[in-house]
Design a protein that fits this description.
The chain is α/β, with parallel strands linked by helices. It has 7 helices and 15 strands.
Length: 286
């Protein structure tokens, strides 16, 4: 019993949103939905999320969950928008509280209780949820962030940003709470799954030599071909590579708006007395 997976790719943020379906019961889950945001104009749109919801309606599906693999730093989550329209429950890793403890003070987000209460379900290692006749099982796979979860559904593993396609490599580990050695250990747990396990990644950045975006691979392909962590790559070698590479990377374009929205489960900050909504931009003086 394996799920059907339909993927919606957002080229603005290079994000793959996965719609996971138990075909027997037509119960579905959305993984990592995108809220469209144009930073230069401060303009929000729900076009991407609404396209997924339309597909769900057109196929007569019932949406049970919105699953967040972690609190994203590169796109705003549409989790709250989808939850309000569909009644689906919003799910994230229980370690989201560690992320909230770091970032709520950064934005003076006094409305954000660092207890995960902005989400409906917090999942830890070994927890399960029913998805129709299927089961969602949780592997806690930190390293990119403390709260990263991999969701196992049938023969499919949804790894978020922990792994990318084999020709692109692995996630950065330099965000607060990230750690390259922890990331390596999490990746090895994923690569210990059966080789035929389908892996669905959260992003694709179209590396040189490839002309089309991809988001599905297998454990066997990752183990043999991943340019950062294929079989034979030692933990120390990976940590040295990952830490050196991370020093060369700029922050994601949407990191500041994304984090202050995503620690709220995809909800906006409270409106000002005038009724306007503001996202804050902390300024660091050199």
């Amino acid at each position: 019993m394996n799920p059907t997976v339909q993927t919606f790719f957002d080229p603005a943020t290079f994000t793959a949103t996965h719609l996971v379906i138990d075909t027997d019961t037509k119960i579905a889950a959305i993984i990592d939905p995108v809220l469209d945001f144009e930073p230069k104009a401060g303009k929000l749109s729900t076009q991407s999320a609404d396209a997924v919801l339309k597909t769900i309606a057109d196929q007569g599906l019932t949406l049970a969950y919105v699953l967040e693999t972690h609190a994203h730093a590169d796109h705003l989550s549409a989790g709250d928008h989808i939850r309000r329209l569909s009644g689906a429950r919003l799910v994230i890793g229980a370690a989201i509280t560690k992320v909230q403890q770091v970032f709520a003070p950064m934005f003076d987000a006094d409305d954000v209780a660092a207890d995960g209460s902005q989400f409906d379900i917090l999942l830890s290692e070994g927890d399960t949820l029913p998805l129709g006749a299927l089961t969602i099982s949780v592997l806690h796979t930190p390293g990119h962030t403390p709260a990263c979860n991999t969701y196992m559904i049938g023969d499919a593993a949804f790894v978020g940003d922990t792994l990318f396609m084999p020709d692109y490599g692995t996630a950065r580990a330099d965000f607060p709470g990230g750690d390259a050695r922890t990331l390596y250990q999490s990746i090895r747990r994923i690569l210990a799954l059966p080789g035929e396990t389908r892996i669905f990644v959260g992003h694709d950045y179209l590396p040189a030599g490839r002309s089309n975006y991809r988001w599905e691979t297998t454990v066997a392909q990752e183990a043999s071909d991943n340019i950062h962590v294929h079989t034979g790559t030692s933990e120390d070698a990976f940590v040295t590579m990952r830490e050196a590479r991370d020093k060369t990377l700029a922050p994601p374009t949407l990191i500041l708006p994304s984090l202050q929205v995503n620690i709220r489960g995809g909800a906006m900050p409270p409106a000002s007395p005038s009724g306007k909504i503001f996202l804050r931009l902390p300024v660091t003086l050199a």
